[in-house]
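User: I would dearly like some help making sense of a protein record. I have put the entry right below:
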Amino acid sequence: MCQRPAGKHHAGLWEFPGGKVQEGESDIDAIRRELLEELAVEPSGETLLIAEYPDETSGFLICFTETTIEAEPVCLEHASIGWFLPKEIRELDLAPADEVFCSQFSKGYLPVPLCNSEPYP
């Protein structure tokens, strides 16, 4: 989990790493770029879409993926990063879309994904 830095939208709140897909960029390429920019790691194996939620405060569609990394993340863009157990995540102040995702995930419910997912080569 990553804590949003001061001066950013949702400052101080915790979120899963990621960001916006740039024009002409695939979802998988965006995941790779964002992980490198934010945490100095690359995905390995398949990356699968598991849920998506609209973030009403920003107007963005937030997609949650299951992504495997093999290196130790480095905090490059956030106030803090950390590994947490599911029960510990529920105690964090989460960004709105992350709050919805974690709440649904902890109940064993996730909506059917709407956007396309492709395996990361």
Residues 27-39 form the longest helix (13 residues). The domain at 2-106 is CATH 3.90.79.10 (Nucleoside Triphosphate Pyrophosphohydrolase).
